[in-house]
Amino acid sequence: MAEELILSYLQDFIPDTISQKSKILAVRFLKLVFGVWNDTCKLLQDIDGKEFKVDRWIRAEGGGGITSCLYEGNKFLNATVDVTVVRGHMPSQAADQLREAGRMSTAWKNDSPEFLAISMNTIIHTRNPHVPSYSYTLRLLVIKLINGSEEGWFGGNVDLTPAYLVKEDVMNFHKILKAACDEHDLSYYPRFKKRCDEYFFIRHRGEARGVGGIFFDNLDFRAEKHFDFVQSCARVFLPAYQPIVKAHLDEPHSEQEDTWQLLRFGRYVEFNLIYNNGIKFGLFMPGIRIDTLFASLPITAK
What we know:
One of its GO terms (molecular function) is coproporphyrinogen oxidase activity. It comes from Lepisosteus oculatus (Spotted gar). Homodimer. It holds the Pfam family Coprogen_oxidas. By secondary structure, this protein is of the alpha+beta class. It has one domain: Coproporphyrinogen III oxidase, aerobic (oxygen-dependent coproporphyrinogen oxidase, 3-Layer(aba) Sandwich). Helices cover 44% and strands 26% of the residues. It has helices spanning 2-11, 20-48, 92-100, 167-182, 188-199, 224-248, 255-274, 277-283, 290-293, and strands spanning 53-58, 63-71, 76-89, 114-126, 133-144, 150-161, 201-202, 207-208, 213-220. The strands form 2 sheets. Strands 1-2-3-4-5-6-9 form a 7-stranded antiparallel beta sheet. A hairpin with a 4-residue loop joins strand 1 and strand 2. The N and C termini lie far apart (43 Å).
């Protein structure tokens, strides 16, 4: 019953000002990511033995969300799983960021268009340096054009960030992602893997943040094939990580290995504060929940 109430709470943030067709698609996507949120929280809580703190919040300018946090757990240093529904008129700085990324229709002339953004984000950092940090995101952006029509995109990404590299883990991780992509289009995996490698690169260091994954964006939300692909991603993001956690979570580790993990966490912080587009976009949104926006940062770093 509690889960139904939370889903209803989130659905109430979807505005009636978008078209009925877009609203149906938005509700459908929200139900999908809410299911991922629920499954992820249950799994991580079962592994750690400590309960998530669940926080519902409202953005005065439109929208809100639910953020589940597990800080200083038995197994996890910090883990955050959130679903955010933001609506209203997009600030000009946020619109400029989308234009720079090439996500602007020729019909989009309004500097402050009405929009709806739905996202589900998971970030996991463990105490054991032999277990990689993990993050995945699914998102939908709908924009109302000045002529009254609407455009929308699905996007998402998943990436693995180990402090210590285990070749077999990385190969199996990518094998699962490739199978999910190949089910829909054989060009997806090489395209989306390349995009992920390019995105999660710390340019000022000249090094990758981790071992990649997939990164996709600009998939027309009106195309059923794109929703099917997003569903496939939602099904595999947890199974791609579970075997790695199970294999290494209880491995012994030394003080030297712990120190190395802190240095890798430091690189994670550098990337997110300088290059992370989601954080940049969120900072342009008045009233956004800052604790949720920066939940991806490890609570210790060096």
